[in-house]
Amino acid sequence: MGNYAGDIIICLLVLFSVCFLYGTTHVIKSFIGNGENIISSHTYYSWIIRFCLNFSGYATVLLPGYLIYKYVRVSKYLQRKGKGCIPRLIHSCFLGSGEQGLLDSSHYSPTPATSHPPSTFFQDALLLTHCFFGLQVSYLTWGYLQEKIMTQEYDDGQGNRSNFKDSQFIVFINRVLAVVISAVCLLIIRQPPHTIPLYKYTFCSLSNVLSSWCQYEALKYVSFPTQVLAKASKIIPVMIMGKIISRTKYEYYEYVTAVLISIGMMMFMLGSTDHENDGATTFSGVILLGAYMMLDSFTSNWQNALFNEYGVTSIQMMCAVNLFSCLLTATSLFQQSSIMYSLTFMATYPNFILDCLLISIFSTTGQLYIFYTISNFGAVTFIIIMTVRQVTYLSISTLFIVLRPNSDNRNCLLK
Q1: Of residues 49 and 270, more confidently modeled
Q2: Membrane-crossing residues (predicted)?
């Protein structure tokens, strides 16, 4: 009887929190208009409204999970052997395949990372080169497609032209294909046992979604030189976040090297751009850019910590993180009714469908390299590679502008 009572309590917690947050979202929307007006609004502080709406959608998933987490901790729900789908789901989310999980975290020892035979310097160098070029090709192409989708006008074949405005939908479709590909890989490629409780993925999944959103929003409020300065100095916050999350110890020369790399990248990138007419940097833009830097640094370091502590594979990590990201973004899009805007746009402008498919393919390929690079070389090495990618893309953009003087590729430098 105890199991059934616990299942009922869990269902009521989910129902209450979902209804409360869904109602809150619609109350906010009733004061500011329909979903398309919210998406296209570009006033200085409209991003706060969009952030509240997005986070309300995310909280519709996260709040029930948090309430269940607190209930499981104070009750003996997981100590009772339940055979239904709810006990199994709760067990996977909060206990994993370990023996203690969150019930006794003080005595829980995560499964150590799977040991691999030692590799030679030549093998490491070859693997790093492979990751470097894989990331460069994937994200250079992805950046071009991203800029194309967010800036070009699509033609419906009848003379009507329009821009696509909902950046959260692009984040969603990228995550959908990544889940499908990684799930297929899990089915056909033998993986080590998965022991990590699923709820641990929600932290980096949420930070990844929010950092992507902040990055898009920041482009509306900051000048191009400010973007360049922030992206070129991302190594430093990554190292600081690594010290906070994983207690990683860096030598003094490593901090000095990071600072010198950041300064060198900033000088090169600023010296290679014509930024006389880039517009002013606003206070809102600085906040969004700072949030992007912090969240993006947290994401890579949290994933690195999971790799090191639990021995999770890159495919397992990719599938779980993107699954939660899909759940978060889909819930937010549904609550804001903005998903209908995106689907209508796809039906009206067929060329948009092809661009969505291409950007999803290259985003998924890039994610495979991201997780593989972080699992083998750590978060700092990954950020250095991505910083070099900014320089490479800037060089290509500069060459493109020289060949086509009327074009403007400055906003391609997205991560």
Answers
A1: 49
A2: 7-28, 48-69, 169-189, 252-271, 278-295, 315-334, 341-363, 369-388
Strongest mean pLDDT among 214-228, 274-288, 323-337: 323-337
Q: How far apart are CA 297 and CA 260, in angstroms?
A: 19
Q: What is the rounded average pLDDT for all residues in the chain?
A: 76
Mark whether 94 and 127 lie in a shared domain. Answer: no
| Domain count along the chain | 2
* Predicted confidence (pLDDT) per residue in 224-241, tens digit: 556 666 776 778 888 888
Whether 41 and 142 share a structural domain: no
Question: Tell me, what's the pLDDT at 397?
Answer: 60
Q: Assess contact for 315 and 375: CB atoms under 8 A.
A: no
Q: Residue 201: which domain range?
A: 119-412
Residues 96 and 153 in one domain: no
Q: Quick one: average pLDDT of 24-48?
A: 60
Last residue of a domain, one of 64, 82, 105: 105
Q: Which residue has the higher pLDDT, 129 or 15?
A: 129
| CA neighbor of 147 nearest in space, from 169, 170, 176 | 170
pLDDT at 185 over 50: yes
Residue 92 counted as domain residue: yes
Q: Record the pTM.
A: 0.77
367 and 256 in a common domain: yes
